[in-house]
Amino acid sequence: MDSRLLWGMVDMLILDVVSRGPTYGYQIAQTVLSQSSGYFELKEGSLYPALHRMERQKLLTSYWEETQEGRRRKFYKITLAGQRALDEKRDEWARFSAGVNGVLGGAYGLA
Which of 32, 84, 97, 103 has the CA that lies 20 to 30 A from 68? Predict the structure, then answer.
């Protein structure tokens, strides 16, 4: 997929995964990869800068927690502002995809 299109969706994908409950970076990437059937692979170079930016924007909060293996892991949790932003992004995506599908006339997905 064109990386410019993916860049516009990264925040929405991350916010959606985090909205399901506190989670950490690697798990976010694995969830997106799994649920997109391998289509979206969030690399560290785009995932962590996005997480940090969304923290600065107060869309996410984070905290450290020790795992059973004795390692510390940074967990992310969505804020009320983050949930509102996710709702707006979902609405925007619905309008965008409906517009694209309208132009394509249902021919999308055919190889």
Answer: 32
Considering only residues 47 and 107, tell me which one the structure prediction assigns the higher pLDDT: 47
d(CA 65, CA 56): 20
Q: Look up residue 83 and give its DSSP letter.
A: H
Q: Does residue 55 sit within a domain?
A: yes
Q: Is residue 104 part of a domain?
A: no
What pTM did the predictor assign? 0.84
Look at residue 39 and tell me if it is in a domain. yes
Asked if residue 87 belongs to a domain, the reply is yes
Compute the chain's Rg from CA coordinates.
16
Give the chain's count of helices (H) and strands (E): 4, 3
Q: What is the mean pLDDT of residues 71-82?
A: 97
Number of domains present in the structure of the chain: 1
Other Cβ atoms within 10 Å of 37 Cβ, number: 7
